Predict the 3D structure of the following.
Amino acid sequence: MSSLPLQIAQALLLVLLAPVAAGFVASVKARLQNRHGPGLLQPWRNLAKLFAKQVVLAENASWIFRFAPYVVFTATVMAASCVPALLVDTPLSLTADVIALVSLLALARFFLALAGMDIGTAFGGMGASREMTFSALAEPALLMSVFVLSLGAHSTNLTTMIQHTLNTPIMLQPSLAFALAAMLMIALAENGRIPVDNPTTHLELTMVHEAMILEYSGRHLALMEWASMIKLTLFATLIIDLFMPWGMVAGPDAAGLLLALVAWVLKIFGLLLALSLAETYLAKLRLFEVPEFLSMAFVIAFLGLLSHYMLEVNA
Amino acid sequence: MLRMLRQIVRIGTITERLATSDAYERLGRELEDAVKKRFAGSLAIRQVDAGSCNGCELEIHAANNPYYDIERFGVHFTASPRFADMLLVTGPVSVNMKTALEMTYEATPDPKLVVAVGDCAEHCGVFGRENYAIAGCVSDIIPVDVVVHGCPPTPSDIIRGILAAIDRMP
């Protein structure tokens, strides 16, 4: 087996598993509220229905509004295919490093914000301005957190970073703990989860991500929602890649791949279980406290960087 | 946090049979089948309060609670009419909400259904049609598929109304 079909299969797996992962979070949260919940496949059913629905466009929607769902979805899928999930060494992850990954996500977010403003409603513009405010703080913190690991691996390439983690003996590294803490905080913010944003809110005034897609319908909405589900799985995979890649295989052999698949799925669902617990226990932050939350993530990542130099270089 | 988690585990799932009969469960299965057949297993509802006293809202909200748990039948409530397959309209339509209701109807993508919930939505109820603040009942403003009687109707009544609306689809 060559690695190109595997690369495509891996990206497809991530894209197709993303709605199930979102359904898992919803189901666990429903269980924690002492009810049955809609089941794992409900997001898939929602998407299937939306693809068959009519698209209603607002009167003053320009081409940007119609174009944005395709850009957002494509950019997110491209970002998802750059992240190694099973195989350490994939063709695409060698061409795109973490900075390219972050910029693909930034491209998706840029078009999302444009689409939010394009329609001219109050909530779209409000959501776009909030999203951009948060992302201006979240992106540097995300990169800073990744750079802590890059310092050890001497590369921003995910494959090299994973190989470095796999080849070094397991030991407690304070810098990694800082980087992980920062990364988890940023993953919450980037995916619009509690405490930064509430994905299930119906209250327009508290919305961030939802406010930008309020005017979408039919297949456009389906693509937007699917993209945000993919992003959630993508971040979970990124955290796994950077901090706990054990189980991933270097070469394409069937048994190893199966084991890697099982390990990946278990780790993804473990992280999502933690997310559901956090979302059940935490309350949403006040909007003006979110910048403080994100600055704290940046400071924590920076402390990770410092502790790497102080404690781990030449140690 | 651990105390809360223990409490959650101790209580367990409390979505339970509502009465001695399993009428609600059977109704729910029927709804689930209808939603599966007509809406690929996912029915999105936008609730519109056109001027109600909030009694109907309480009952609609009760359909989401752990006892009724309408979400398990594939029905969920959305934040925007553009995401919706069905509008649940409550209350007599007040003059100030008339345009908003018309715009909401226009914004909902086809195929769409409208269920008027409660006596006020049907014939303006206690507010009366001759009221200076009221533009009319829901069917005066937008086409209505099904009316749910009651002041307020119970969650089971509302679910029966939703089911009737889906069954009326061509």
Summary: The CA atoms of residues 168 and 284 of chain A lie 39 Å apart. Residues 3-312 of chain A form one domain.
